[in-house]
């Protein structure tokens, strides 16, 4: 790999794009750099000097990559860092509070909290890799959103005020996570939206599909709670959260579809959601 | 910094932070002190409620619960480091006398308090340097009898510090005046009760290594020593927590019913006819029956059973039993969480 190619790769490390899009950017940047190099060589520089000059003129790879990312996905990375750090910070504050003031700290909970927060931050750090599969980034975010949603029901504050403050913090965190999902879906699908489709309708498609996902998650968690409350801890309790996984799988197909047929995708999304809930419930009833 | 290094640094940092939190959290010292139900209980005059102490990390709060069990309600909660114990209902059920107990570096305190259920206030009617250990209302509700010890120490090196030099006092609840009824400086006195006619006091004391029940006339100070006869498994007479039946003809108390394979005494409730002084074993829990009390209007009792008598901390639970001891049913209690409102 030439030094210019390495330079381009460093730029691409900072940017989120699909495989095809990435190839196009790579080609365009290399083409531009090669042209400038040729120009420098025509001006009497050696090949090495010309390359060096081109890269110096082009600027720091990290800065360019950052600017490109912000131009294509405004605030996307910042939002990922914010959601991830806020998740870890909540884990830290809540765990210390539980350990020292309530004497009821659960290390496994802290581990899950850290993993869900770190996954989002790692997605931000490795945006060039994760961004190639925008569905994967949404899954990481949705897992974080669902976990923080569960956390709202688990809050055990020392006082009602503490419980309220923790709840507000988590609600904002959940909201930020959902915004990140919608934003990621919206910008990632930007290239496939045809002129006839209004961006607003596509956004509506993502919003409604996400809302359906939240309903599926809510219903599943309610079933889980009811199951554990009435039957106790059993392996079959896991079936109650199967709708979340089914929905996540169908969401992968939905995402591609939303950009192309946003209105129809709302109907199919509704169908998938109903299916995601009814199949596991039927299995549970038959058991 | 390369992307690889960024990932490694971030993951290592997070693992380190998690480990620090985990270790620090596990080192966070849990509060010490007993958590569980207190031994002494009382039944409301209409037999609808039990009043009891529930300890949380050494501090006891007073609760009531329906006599058949259910969700407990806080009656009075002390400030941190203090405990409310040994509750007793007044005959109209409006007042609950209890003992507030706490300790400073210099000494221990054990003071008499009265909770008014209507005004929801705790009153301190007397302030004494002594150690008030328990109280019982007169049947007319006008007086409150209580036991007070003058010292808190260990006379013998094999026992822990305990209150000693006991006497009985009476407080007029209208005027608040207190008078001393006995001048015994007794080594021990406990389980004060008043006969239904209001003329005599019952309490437990000891004579050498034997425990004794004493019936003392309030008016003329006449004293009758009662030595229950029965099939006890101990050589010396060991008994505790005597309580009178509503008709005043029977006494229920805790005595030694048997020994287990390790030679540890098994304490059960015994019921004694006051006239014949003949006692019969009432319960067969094969645990430690710590306390028993009669219902006022029904032919039943509530007993406190300690399932960890030989352990460091008691594991008390309350049980309803029939008058013949044949049937027993646990009183299930749901203690509300800290942040749960009533």
UniProtKB/TrEMBL annotation, chain A:
* Start-end of Basic and acidic residues biased regions: 1-12
Q: Annotated region Disordered: where?
A: 1-21
- Keywords per UniProt: Membrane, Transmembrane, Transmembrane helix
> What residues form the membrane-spanning segments?
78-96, 108-127, 134-155, 161-182, 203-228, 234-251, 263-286
What is the protein name for this chain?
Uncharacterized protein
> NCBIfam families this protein is in?
perm_prefix_1
UniProtKB/TrEMBL annotation, chain B:
Similarity annotation: Belongs to the TolB family.
Q: Which residues cross the membrane?
A: none
Q: Name one Pfam family in it.
A: PD40
Q: Which SUPFAM superfamilies match?
A: DPP6 N-terminal domain-like
Name by which UniProt lists this protein: Uncharacterized protein
- Which PANTHER family does the UniProt entry name for this protein? PROTEIN TOLB, PROTEIN TOLB HOMOLOG
């Amino acid at each position: 790999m030439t030094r210019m190619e390495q330079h381009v790769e460093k730029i691409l490390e900072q940017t989120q794009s699909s495989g095809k899009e990435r190839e196009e950017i790579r080609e365009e940047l290399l083409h531009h750099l090669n042209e400038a190099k040729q120009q420098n060589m025509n001006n009497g520089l050696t090949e090495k000097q010309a390359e060096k000059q081109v890269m110096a003129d082009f600027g720091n790879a990290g800065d360019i990559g950052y600017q490109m990312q912000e131009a294509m996905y405004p605030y996307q990375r910042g939002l990922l860092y914010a959601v991830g750090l806020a998740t870890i910070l909540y884990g830290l504050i809540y765990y210390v509070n539980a350990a020292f003031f309530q004497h009821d700290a659960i290390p496994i909970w802290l581990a899950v909290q850290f993993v869900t927060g770190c996954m989002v931050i790692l997605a931000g750090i490795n945006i060039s890799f994760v961004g190639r599969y925008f569905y994967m980034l949404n899954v990481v975010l949705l897992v974080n959103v669902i976990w923080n949603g569960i956390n709202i029901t688990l809050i055990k504050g020392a006082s009602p005020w503490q419980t309220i403050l923790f709840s507000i913090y988590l609600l904002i965190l959940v909201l930020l996570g959902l915004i990140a999902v919608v934003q990621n879906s919206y910008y990632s699908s930007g290239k496939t939206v045809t002129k006839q489709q209004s961006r607003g309708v596509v956004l509506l498609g993502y919003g409604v599909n996400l809302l359906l996902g939240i309903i599926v998650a809510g219903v599943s968690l309610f079933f889980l709670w009811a199951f554990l409350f009435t039957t106790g801890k059993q392996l079959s309790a896991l079936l109650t959260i199967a709708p979340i996984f089914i929905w996540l799988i169908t969401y992968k197909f939905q995402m591609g579809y939303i950009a192309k047929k946003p209105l129809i995708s709302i109907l199919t999304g509704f169908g998938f959601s109903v299916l995601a809930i009814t199949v596991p419930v039927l299995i549970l009833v038959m058991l | 910094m390369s992307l690889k290094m960024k990932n490694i640094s971030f993951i290592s940092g997070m693992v380190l932070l998690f480990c620090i939190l985990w270790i620090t959290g596990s080192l966070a010292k849990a509060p010490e002190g007993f958590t569980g139900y207190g031994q002494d209980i009382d039944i409301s005059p209409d037999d609808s409620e039990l009043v009891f102490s529930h300890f949380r990390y050494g501090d006891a709060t007073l609760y009531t619960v329906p006599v058949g069990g259910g969700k407990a309600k806080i009656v009075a909660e002390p400030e941190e480091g203090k405990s409310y114990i040994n509750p007793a209902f007044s005959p109209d059920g409006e007042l609950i006398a209890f003992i507030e107990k706490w300790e400073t570096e210099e000494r221990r305190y054990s003071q008499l308090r009265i909770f008014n259920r209507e005004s929801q206030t705790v009153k301190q009617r007397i302030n004494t340097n002594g150690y008030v250990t328990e109280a019982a209302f007169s049947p007319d509700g006008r007086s409150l009898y209580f036991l007070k010890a003058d010292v808190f120490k260990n006379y013998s090196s094999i026992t822990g510090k305990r209150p000693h030099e006991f006497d009985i006092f009476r407080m007029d609840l209208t005027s608040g005046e207190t008078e001393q009824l006995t001048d015994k400086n007794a080594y021990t006195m406990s389980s004060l009760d008043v006969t239904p006619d209001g003329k005599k006091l019952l309490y437990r004391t000891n004579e050498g290594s034997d425990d004794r029940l004493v019936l003392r006339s309030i008016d003329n100070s006449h004293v009758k020593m009662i030595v229950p006869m029965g099939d006890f498994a101990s050589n010396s007479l060991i008994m505790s927590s005597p309580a009178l039946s509503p008709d005043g003809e029977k006494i229920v108390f805790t005595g030694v019913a048997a020994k287990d394979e390790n030679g540890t005494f098994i304490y059960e409730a015994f019921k004694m006819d006051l006239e014949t002084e003949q006692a019969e074993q009432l319960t067969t829990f094969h645990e430690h029956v710590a306390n028993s009390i009669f219902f006022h209007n029904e032919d039943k009792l509530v007993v406190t059973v300690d399932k960890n008598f030989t352990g460091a901390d008691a594991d008390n639970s309350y049980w309803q039993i029939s008058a013949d001891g044949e049937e027993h049913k646990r009183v299930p209690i749901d203690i509300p969480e800290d942040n749960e409102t009533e």
